[in-house]
Amino acid sequence: MRAVERAAEGDRGSFTAELAAGLPALLLLLLTGLTAVNAVSAQAGCLHAAREAALAAARGADGSAEGGRAAPPGAAVTVSVDGDLVRTTVRAPVRTLGGRLPRITVVATAVAAVEPGAAERS
Questions:
Q1: Distance from C-alpha of 66 to C-alpha of 72, rounded to nearest angstrom
Q2: Fewer CB under 10 Å: which end of the chain, C or N?
């Protein structure tokens, strides 16, 4: 019976040591996952804003203003007209949850055909 008790005493604290070694890795994985979810959400917002801006500019309205209303905070909206096509690009910074890491920039682009008569309206 003494040999069994001695073997059990040798494992004391091993769970604490394993937890201390694995907890930072688990925390890093959690922060990476949450940052990825935040980036995907910002990407979806940029895509929505780019579509809104392209459609507004194709109709002859101010695409930058429309895109800016739908864009995530801190986003930059660029609208360019090239012949019969309107191309809009929305860029938004995404802050990493670690705080000390550099920001990630997500970009979305949309293209729309200029509607007939839109040049006369603007």
A1: 12
A2: N
Q: Sign (positive/negative) of CA torsion 109, 110, 111, 117? A: negative
Q: Model's pTM, two decimal places?
A: 0.76
Q: Given CA atoms 78, 81, 86, 87 in this order, what sign does their dihedral have?
A: negative
Amino acid at site 61:
A
CA–CA distances in Å: residue 74 to residues 4, 15, 53, 96, 111: 64, 45, 16, 15, 22
Mean pLDDT, consecutive 10-residue stretches, the chain (122 aa), reads 56 75 89 91 96 94 93 94 94 84 92 81 49
Helices 14-58 & 63-70 angle (0-180, nearest 10): 150
Beta strands in the chain (DSSP E): 76-82, 85-94, 104-113
Residues with Cβ < 8 Å from 58, sequence gap 6 or more? 86, 112, 113, 114, 115, 118
